[in-house]
Every structure is written in structure tokens, then in C-alpha cells.
Amino acid sequence: MLRKIVIFGLMCLFFAAEAQAQGLGFGPQVGYHKSSDADEGSLLVGGALRMRLSAALGIEGSITYREEKYNDDLLTVKSWPVMVTGLFYPLPILYGAVGAGWYNVTFDYDQDQLGNFVEDQTSQEFGWHFGGGIELPFGETTKLAADIRYVFLNYEFDQIPGSEELQSDFYVLSVSLFWGL
């Protein structure tokens, strides 16, 4: 009988720890991003949903809006990335991140400078990212996360002569506030 009580107690502790480790949060995300050859960096805004699957693993889904300019404002690239990220927590508040994204992209060419020779385009691109961050408790059900990620994304810049060599990989510094659901 004592053995059953000990086993039952250990199981309760295990499942309580698992329930504590699991959590679902949703909230806003803001950040700064800069592509390798973009004219300058800019802000991004969006939302994210994050879930801790265990004490060491989590997953995040996010949708953001970002915009960047290339070739002295001849080209404005607007994108709405939908990203899925796997999270690994070596420590309770530190995490590594790796994932993939689907980017709905609009290439908006400056018709005043280029004339009507170049038409705007919309396409879908696929990219990979990795990075790391910190996730801090901010009250009982709220968490504040800050991270840096590097994104491998290969846009096809072929409409503007001389732009074929432009690099569109970028880094992003972001902050998210997650409210527990």
C-alpha cells in the first residue's frame, strides 16, 4: 500500500510540474528589422501565440507586417510573414529558436522614377530563421519576451537593372507581451 501511495504522489508531482510548464499566451509583437542591403531598418508590428509544450520545449506562431526600401527608394518591399518557430529552453527563462516562415510579399516599384516599364508584383516566398531570447514572468499570467533572430530569405530582385546582387536576409530584434489564455 505504501508503494502505491509513493507512486501516486510521484505521479501527482510529475503532472503538476508538466501542467505548470505548459502555458498558452497571446499578445502583441513589435520589433526592428534591417535587411542586409535595405536602405535603412524599420519597425515591424504584429501578434504572436506561444505555447510551452514542456519545461524545455515550446512553439510559437506569429503574423507581422514589415516594410523595407531598396535602391534609394526605387523599390518598397511590403511583406506579411506567417512564421512557425520551435523553442528550446536550456534554462527556464532563456530559449533558442529555429523555424520557418511563409512571406506574402508585394514589390512596389516607384513608377515616378522608373516609368511604367516596371509593374508591381506580389509573390510568396519561403524563409528560415534562427535566434534566441529571454522570456521573463511579468505578473502571474503575463510574460515578456525579447529576442533576436536572423532570417534567410531570398527575394528575386530582377526588375531593376543592377539590383540582382541585392541581399534580403535580415535580422530582427523583437519584444512580445504574452497574456495567458
Structural shape: elongated
CATH architecture identity: Beta Barrel
Uncertain parts: 12-21
Largest beta sheet, briefly?
Answer: 8 strands, antiparallel, barrel
Class in CATH? Mainly Beta
Count of separate structural domains: 1
**Run of helices and strands:** HEEEEEHEEE
Category by helix and strand content: mainly beta
Strands in their spatial order, largest beta sheet: 1-2-3-4-5-6-7-8
What is the CA-CA span between the terminal residues?
39 Å
Helix content: 10-25%
Strand content: over 45%
Taking all Cα atoms into account, the compactness measure Rg is 21 Å
Average pLDDT, all residues: 84
Per DSSP, the total helix count is: 2
Count of strand segments = 8
CATH topology: Porin
